[in-house]
Amino acid sequence: MSNQCNLCLPPMVDASEHDELFIGRRILVNGPVIVGAGPSGLAVAAGLQQQGVPFVVLERANCIASLWQNKTYDRLKLHLPRQFCELPYFPFPKEYPEYPSKNQFINYLETYAKHFKINPRFNETVQSAKYDENCGSWRIKTVDTSDYSEIEYICSWLVAATGENAEKVVPEFEGLQDFSGQVMHACDYKSGKAYDGKRVLVVGCGNSGMEISLDLCNYNAIPSMVIRSSVHVLPREILGISTFQLSVSLMKWLPIWLVDKIFVSIARLLMGNIEKYGVKRPSTGPLQLKNTLGKTPVLDIGTLNKIRSGMIKVVPGIKKFSRDGVELENGEFLEIDSVILATGYCSNIPSWLKENEFFSGDGFPKTPFPNGWKGKAGLYAVGFSRRGLSGASFDAIRVSEDIGQIWKQELKQKNQGALSLANRRSCKS
Ligand SMILES: Cc1cc2nc3c(=O)[nH]c(=O)nc-3n(C[C@H](O)[C@H](O)[C@H](O)COP(=O)(O)OP(=O)(O)OC[C@H]3O[C@@H](n4cnc5c(N)ncnc54)[C@H](O)[C@@H]3O)c2cc1C
Ligand SMILES: NC(=O)c1ccc[n+]([C@@H]2O[C@H](COP(=O)([O-])OP(=O)(O)OC[C@H]3O[C@@H](n4cnc5c(N)ncnc54)[C@H](OP(=O)(O)O)[C@@H]3O)[C@@H](O)[C@H]2O)c1
Q1: Which of 91, 209, 240, 262 has the smallest number of Cβ neighbours within 10 A?
Q2: Cα–Cα distance measured from residue 335 to residue 326, given in angstroms and rounded to the nearest whole number
Q3: Measured over all CA atoms, what is the biggest interatomic distance in the chain, rounded to whole angstroms?
Q4: Quick check: is 198 in a domain?
Q5: Helix residue ranges per DSSP H, 96-184
Q6: Is residue 308 pLDDT above 90, yes or no?
Q7: Which ligand 1 atom sits closest to the C-alpha of 78?
Q8: Distance 101 CA to ligand 2 centre (A)
C-alpha cells in the first residue's frame, strides 16, 4: 500500500486497486486525506496504516512537525511527563527523560513517521476544502509552495489536523510602527544569545512568555514581561508528582471546582503571594478556565524565582509604543531595545474549510471534548480539544478506528457484490 501519488497511473486504472487516480490536476484519493503532518496528523495516519486503510497526508511545510521544528525556541522541553506525550502505538525510547527536550521529541516523531511509513506530500498548502453534495465527496484544493501549481484532491473522508496553533496572533499596538528596535513573534525566537545586555519587552505571560523571559535572563538580557490581566501559575510538580498527573487522578474522584480549589491552595502554599509581584490569579480556577476559555495555566520551571529576585520585571498592559520605548497603562514609560510578542496562536480552520456546522468561527469544533472529533459527511477533527498531545492521541485513535470500520464494511460489500456478479456469470455460462 502506498500513500504517494502515482502520477503515472493510466487513466482507466480502477481506483480501488490504487490509492489515487490522477486526472489532469485532479487526484482521486482512495481513502482519507489528512491535512497537517504534525503529531495529530501523524497519529491518525499511524492508526489508519495499522488497519490497512490508504491515506494521503498534505503538509504546507517541507517537514513533519513543522511547529516543533521551525517555530519553537531552543530551550523548549515537553512540560508534561513523557507518558502523556507519547503518540498511540509507539512508546518513547526508554532512555528519554521524564520531560523530553524539543529535539528528542522531534527525533521521536521522525522515527514514528518512518516506522508507520508515513510519507506526507510536503509544500502543499490546503487553500480550501468543501463537501460537494453532487458527487458526495470532499474537494480539497492545494497550492504547491515551491512552484504555485494547484492540485485538487477528491476523497470521501477529510481529517482536519492543522492544529490549535496554526497561525501566530499579532495584536495591533498604537505606535508600534514607529518603534526603532526589533519586533518579533515568539514563534521566531530561538534563544536569548543575541540579547545580552538588551532591554526586552516580552508581551504575554502564557507558557511562551514566561519561558522566553526566563531564557532571556539566562543570557543576561533585561526582560520586562507584560501581564495585562491575570494568569494561573502552578508548580510543574507537587511533592515530586507532576501537577498534570495529579489533576488527572483527582478529577476521577472530585468535581472540577474542588480540584481547582486544592491546586490554588497548594500553589499559594508553595509559591507564596505572587500577586505582590504583579502576577494576579484569575477568580476562575485553572482547570475550569482551561475547559471554558482554553486558557492554559503556566507550569513554572523557574520564571517565578527570577520575578521574585527582580531579574524579570512584571509590567501592566501597553498603552502605546514610541521610537525608543513603550508607555504602559499605569503611565510608566519604559525604554526598550526589543519586543517579543508572546501573544499566542490561533487555529486556521476558517481560512480553508468551507463548513460551519461542525467547526465554529474560532476554528474549533462546536462540540466539546470528548465528542469533538467527528462531523458529518466524512469530516473529522484531530487535535482541537485543548488537551495537548494526550488529547490529540485520544482523537486520533477514535478517528482512525471509525474510518477503519467504515472502510472494512465498504470493502466487504464490494467483495460480496463482486462475488455475486461472478456467481451469476458462472450460472449463465
Ligand atoms: C511553543 C509550544 C510548546 C508546546 N508544548 C507542548 C507540550 O509540551 N505538550 C503538549 O501537549 N502540547 C504542547 N504544545 C501544543 C502543541 O500545539 C501540540 O502539542 C502539538 O504540536 C499539536 O499537534 P497538531 O498536529 O495538532 O498541531 P501542529 O503541531 O501545529 O501541526 C499542524 C500541522 O498542520 C500544518 N498545516 C497547517 N495549516 C495547513 C494547511 N492549510 N495546509 C497544509 N498543512 C497545514 C502545519 O504546518 C503543521 O505542520 C505546545 C505548543 C507550542 C506553540
Ligand atoms: N513548555 C511547553 O510545553 C510550552 C511552552 C510554550 C507554550 N506552550 C503551549 O503553547 C500554547 C500557546 O502558548 P502561548 O504562551 O504561546 O500563548 P497563550 O497561552 O495564548 O498566551 C498568550 C499571552 O499573550 C497575552 N496577550 C495577547 N494579546 C495581548 C495584548 N494585546 N497585550 C498584552 N498581552 C496580550 C495573553 O494575555 P491575556 O491572557 O490577558 O489574553 C496571554 O498572556 C499553549 O497551549 C501553551 O501551553 C507549551
Answers
A1: 240
A2: 7
A3: 95
A4: yes
A5: 102-115
A6: yes
A7: 8
A8: 20
